[in-house]
Design a protein that fits this description.
With about 180 residues, the protein is α/β, with parallel strands linked by helices. The chain has helices at about 10-20, 100-105, 160-170; strands at about 35-40, 50, 55-60, 65-70, 75, 80-90, 125-130, 135, 150, 155, 175-179.
Amino acid sequence: MSSWGSRSGLAPAILSVLLSGAAGLPACDPASARSLVVIFPGYPAGEIIISQHQRRLYFTEGNGRAIRYPVAIGMPGKAWLGASAVEGKYIAPAWSPPAIVHRDHPELPGLIAGGSPHNPMGAAAITLTRYQVAIHGTTARMRRSVGTAASYGCIRMYNEDVVDLYQRVSVGTPVIAIP
């Protein structure tokens, strides 16, 4: 698995630094692209639903309501469908490119430190029980990819949105990717 720097004990302090932009990452704007929406009422509270077609992630609140976030999904042939669950939560994680990414981008170093403006994990990563897949933030350069099919299977979010989602989920939260 990629190298995810666990710093959850420092989460509140690091989150405030990330929201201010003082960490060298793009400042996290609390007024992000997320919105409260009405969804099919059959989803219980506390689930993550990823709609590949819509390129949106929904965090269900119950009673037919959810928070909707724009996301980048896996590029053709890399997107996944089915059930998973949150396996871990990491603030400003370090990242090692998986073999397939390194093969396609040999110029990448073997490790990018957490908090680096070049780290594609961005402000936070929520790892899933699927091999080498996470819901994570982004770099300033990659922000424009949100809303597209651009990743190697991970779900990419704006930093401000992944910080918001990070605070709402727990290890074990169900994740379902639908077409």
